[in-house]
Amino acid sequence: MKPSRMAFAVLTSALIGLTATTHLVAQPVQIAPAQIVPRFAVVPNLNSGDVSILDTISNTEAARIPVGTRPEEVAMSRDGRFAYVSTDGAAFGQLRIVKISLINQTVINTITINGNSALVELEISPNGRVLAAAEIRSGTLYLINAGTMTLQSTTVLCPSCGGGNPIFAAPRVHFSNNSQQLYAALPVETALQVVATSNGAILNTLPGPPNFGSPYGDIKVLQPFDQFVWVSHPQNQFVRLYDVINGVFSDIALTFNSPSDIELIQGSNLLVAGSIQSDPQADFLEVFDLNTATTTLIPSNEEQRQLTFNPQLDELWTTCIFSCGGGNRIEAFDLATLTPLASITMPASAFVGTFPSFSPNGRFYYQPQSNNTVLVVNAVTKAIVTQIPVGSNPRGVYMQGASQPKE
Fold first, then answer.
1. Cα(292)–Cα(287) distance, rounded to whole angstroms?
2. Could you say which of 58, 148, 208, 312 is the most buried, measured as most Cβ atoms within 10 Å of its Cβ?
């Protein structure tokens, strides 16, 4: 059932500020571990069985570390010390996660889990204690102690999947801000499940948007509350925004269907949707303001596959990989004025890869490419700087001490 205007008012007002009683609650004193100055990035090379460690100061490959068959998913500890890389051992009935020290640039521990297919997501809790590994075929969630690399719990999120079409059982996961819960979206179940981080127990099931057979979903959390969005595409022409604190949700209608990626922009309460619809009328980024409930369309190329936010410049960058008007492109947009800034044509020999990232200081943009390089663009001047050679088929760029990019 679609929520009333009152429910939406509760939801949007919660996004504007904390309640009056929040400051009265005593907060425990926490001593954070010593922080590492962010410098390195990890690139999983799917076909060569290794990861490249990039130095974002010199924009060179500092090391290449063998990790095993088809590395793909990466999680980075928030203190900048460790990277966790999943490898696809499904052919052998095992999943393997490798823990790498970014200080010494060596493998220091591994865990092997019995499983039938690859992991679709790997994420670490904000407090750095728990790894969540979601398996694609059976919809199974594994919670792992990130320090000792031992298995804490196994939760079957999708009992009805039964090893069927793996895409339809692909969980999208995200930790709550306090690390006590995990949200798991399974499109085939058309529901969001709330899981206890301590033991993997399913605490609650929240209604998801109608699925219409779509095998995709996405989930992101908006600070400072645990509000999050789930979009099921390509059939659905809306996103569902939840407010766990107040127990309400609201559907936000999109102008175009087939959303390719969704971003919740921290600090501005903007929700941005890209589109993969092959229609000149859909050549826009759609920006929805959660405070005013108004929509702005920004002219863009088609096929906005990845949306990447640069908080230092208050810019959103997108990649276009098909109908781009003269080759694969990277586009930059000013979120303060909601206007296009630049369109950067990628090298002709390179097909754009997935999961680009900005450097921690926001000065450089890193885009994986099909020619086994990572393209580096100066984020200020919007000029291409270099292409860094890496392993075969790079699958993303994950920055030290930062959340991993998400689809």
1. 12
2. 208
